[in-house]
Specification:
Blueprint lengths: L1 H7 L25 E3 L10 H10 L5 E7 L10 E3 L3 E5 L5 E5 L1 H11 L1 E11 L8 E10 L3
Parallel strand pairs: 1-2
Antiparallel strand pairs: 2-7, 3-4, 4-5, 6-7
The structure holds S-adenosylmethionine.
Length: about 140
């Protein structure tokens, strides 16, 4: 993905980094806005990431991201984590996480983001031929 991005020649800086390890390799207030597309369904606990995004984004900056929504139809197949997300093995043998709306809401409030917009949409599913529900969020970092 980074190579494809590099070939388009518009990025000032590209770094490979495992989001399961913190802190992010950037100083406070480095970014006007932060976007994370199609990645959080591969990570369970998002709290350390949200706290770090708060640190590296400028006050008033936009934080936009999407997750796979936790739905009742997969109960029985999933391992539920008490924090508000569940885990399932996809058809391509990768653990995938689904986060509940309540979990995301709590994290946003606890990390200092106001939710501006939320949009539900369907994506290619974890099981062949069945779409899954995803949710995109647009939020703003508080100015305190
Ligand atoms: C479905 S792709 C989405 C890529 C890109 N954001 C897009 O929208 O086209 C998922 C990406 O998440 C990256 N990824 C998976 N686990 C990660 C982790 N723990 N830390 C950082 N990146 C991760 C993968 O390397 C892959 O590039």
């Amino acid at each position: 993905m980074l190579e494809i991005c590099r070939s388009k020649d518009f990025a000032d800086d590209l770094r490979e980094f495992d989001l399961r390890g913190m802190p992010l390799p950037y100083s406070d207030g480095s970014f006007d806005d932060v976007i994370c597309c199609g990645v959080f369904h591969l990570i369970g606990d998002l709290e350390p990431i949200f706290k770090e995004v708060f640190r590296v984004i400028k006050p008033g900056g936009i934080f936009a991201f999407n997750v796979l929504a936790q739905t009742s139809e997969k109960e029985g197949e999933v391992v539920s984590h008490s924090q508000g997300y569940s885990e399932i093995i996809s058809d391509w043998n990768v653990p995938v996480f689904m986060h509940s709306g309540e979990y995301i809401e709590k994290l946003l409030q606890g990390s200092g983001f106001d939710r501006l917009k939320e949009l539900k949409f369907l994506v290619r599913g974890l099981h062949e031929g069945i779409d899954d529900l995803a949710c995109a969020y647009v939020t703003r970092r508080t100015v305190v």
